[in-house]
Amino acid sequence: MEQRTFDRSGGSASVVGLGTWQLGADWGTVREADALAVLDAAREAGVTFFDTADVYGDGRSERTIAAYLRERPDAGITVATKMGRRVAQVPENYTLGNFRAWTDRSRENLGVDRLDLVQLHCPPTPVVASDAVFDALDTLVAEERIAAYGVSVETCEQALTAIARPGTASVQIILNAFRMKPLERVLPAAAEAGVAIIARVPLASGLLSGRYTKDTAFAADDHRTYNRHGEAFDQGETFSGVDYATGVEAAAAFSALAPEGATPAQTALRWVVQQPGVTTVIPGARSAEQARSNAEAAALPPLPEETLEAVRALYDERIRPRVHDRW
Ligand SMILES: NC(=O)c1ccc[n+]([C@@H]2O[C@H](COP(=O)([O-])OP(=O)(O)OC[C@H]3O[C@@H](n4cnc5c(N)ncnc54)[C@H](OP(=O)(O)O)[C@@H]3O)[C@@H](O)[C@H]2O)c1
Which of 286, 296, 300, 327 should be mutated for ligand 1, with most atoms under 8 A from CB? Predict the structure, then answer.
């Protein structure tokens, strides 16, 4: 699979990576054997980048990745984790002392001395603008606890602030056919600065697969049930912040644009991959089959101009008025 580089920190990632929130919690139950099968299917298909977080299943996602990689020390996988959401997201919690404790826990969970990439996990805006926070992150690099750091953000403004920091290796942001605002300023700024872009929620929490109807029921312990209106965390993280009924209808129109030989989900991933400035896209998968199919999107031919225009028109007409100004 095509590999793209992290210019500031060195190293590289497969253009399609794997999101592993699903292997923790918040998406209904995933059995351990299925979780390991997802990781294996992704690696077998050429994925070299796993995204996780200390909070996914309160460490389960990290520990599952560690168990998987322990058996495959030469797999060549870069593991990006995140920190900061196991406590209240208030500026006073983002201290060097806490960073050391949080990274110690992730090092133990992942079974490594040095973490490949640690991302602040959607911190509040003042944290992204704090010199002290970035000094502390630089200290973690100097102490060789982490090889590099990045910031996972909610808004384009936060992304631009993070990109302006000289030590930021990567910015993780929602980017998909229903979330186009990062194309305007964030992706060009990141490309100019050499900051890697990790595109998350590329399927709008599965909507862009075109599989859901207005009657689809999600499990009670799935955030697509309990966070539809932002009750538990930022609304933008569930269905990309698009209200469900609108999203289902727009997803049906999106599905009709899929080229022959590509599923709607693969088309959605291909769309992200070909946006200039994207380093890796990290779809979440709940089965080995999904992981495999997502990885295959990397080999699809680029979407032609007329399809790109139709996707843009769909966004402008049905989605833009509802989300564009929010994130
Ligand atoms: N704050 C943050 O930093 C943050 C927030 C959100 C996500 N993330 C990261 O980004 C990753 C991706 O985002 P996400 O998982 O929220 O959303 P996503 O990738 O847009 O959607 C994942 C869902 O799409 C469906 N899906 C996946 N592959 C499919 C396929 N081939 N065909 C049909 N349906 C498919 C599955 O739904 P079903 O479950 O219905 O099968 C899956 O649970 C996460 O795993 C996590 O690593 C980070």
Answer: 286
